[in-house]
Amino acid sequence: MKSMLTCLGLMVLGIATALFIGFHDRFTSEVTYYDDEQEGLKDQIVFKFSHVVAENTPKGRAANKFADLVYKKSGGSIKIEVFPNGSLYSDNEEMNALQNGDVQFIAPSTSKLGTLSPEWGVLDLPYAFTSYDAVQKGLNGKIGARLFASLERQHFKGLAYWTNGFKQLTSNKGPILSPDDLKGQALRIMPSSVIEDQYRLLGAYPRQDSFNSTFQLLESRLVDGEENTISNIYSKKFYNVQDYLTISNHGYLGYAVMTDERFWNSQTEKTRSILTEAMKETTEWNESSAEQMNKEQLEEIKKNSAISIHVLTKAEKLKWMKRLDPIYGQYEPVIGRGLIQELLSLRRQP
Ligand code: LMR
């Protein structure tokens, strides 16, 4: 009788243990790294992709597309969890998180990379690019290659450049037609000394702060205005707390999709090639859709808000360019003559 009871007890314990293990495997989000040698294990690799913008933006949609493509191409064995809106890490935190292995992919705006290497400032120069075509030529050419090489010093690996578009100005203080209209205005900007110095040159008060604090800064009138692409102004509803929008196209805003080099090198050939292929397709899609997305969202802003919109005329734009031109000379020793000359030669191309 005693041995029967012992036997029954052991069986119950065995079933409970098996149930617990099954339950644990199913509901924990532990990352299991894929290993080609271990076929038969029901492993799914889970990687994290963190970014700070809304999903309905060029970057948000590209991150989701990348995740979908990776899932399909790997037959479901690689899953990318995308965390938008700074829900996992803010723009101030994401680079550290990448280095610590807490996240595997990020796509900061290139303006935020000047903290790693001052060369990135080249993309923040006023009117650096005057068309989406010029952006592609620059980033897929010498400028892009040089900037990605600079990431290696910190063991980052640049996987692709994603584009958003051109920055516009918003304010509560009054219409912004000429550079002098910004005098005395407090503006939220990204952490970039090139951008900061542009606004100082115009007598404004730039304030570097994170993207996800921008709405609050505008709403509480801690700043008068900000600069951003239409997709960010639209998706974060800045237009609801700003009275004036100027289509100035005065600067470029795009992204460097990055991973940690050590993480990348630790992956199998197979995983790397799935990720590379998916990234290539996503980037092509992003390049062909970002401009249109910004255009459509400008129409939505017009439909849904009373914000007053001014589009700079050609003559007005020339005035802005001329006024901001000294920044090029000021930053030549910082960014490097070679990169600035490369940019200017692109600008001269028809
Ligand atoms: C910003 O901080 O304004 C932008 O960099 C946000 C983004 O990632 O587009």
Question: Concise description?
Answer:
It comes from Bacillus nakamurai. With 350 residues, the protein is α/β, with parallel strands linked by helices. Helices cover 46% and strands 18% of the residues.
How would you describe this structure in keywords?
alpha/beta; disordered N terminus; 13 helices; 6-stranded mixed beta sheet; 350 residues; 3-stranded parallel beta sheet; D-Maltodextrin-Binding Protein, domain 2; 46% helix; binds (2S)-2-hydroxybutanedioic acid; single chain; 18% strand
Number of strands: 9
* Number of structurally distinct domains: 1
- The averaged pLDDT comes out at 91
Tell me the strand order in the biggest sheet: 6-5-7-4-8-9
CATH class: Alpha Beta
Query: What is CATH's topology name?
Result: D-Maltodextrin-Binding Protein, domain 2
Low-confidence stretches: 1-8, 10-41
| Structural class estimated from helices and strands | alpha/beta
- In percent, how much strand structure appears in the residues? 15-25%
The ligands found in this model are:
(2S)-2-hydroxybutanedioic acid
Work out the radius of gyration.
24 Å
Envelope shape? globular
CATH superfamily: Bacterial extracellular solute-binding protein, family 7
The main pleated sheet reads as: 6 strands, mixed
Measure the end-to-end span. Answer: 95 Å
Number of helices: 13
Helical content class: 40-55%
SSE arrangement, N to C: HEHEHEHHEEHEHEHEHHEHHH
Could you say what the CATH architecture is?
3-Layer(aba) Sandwich
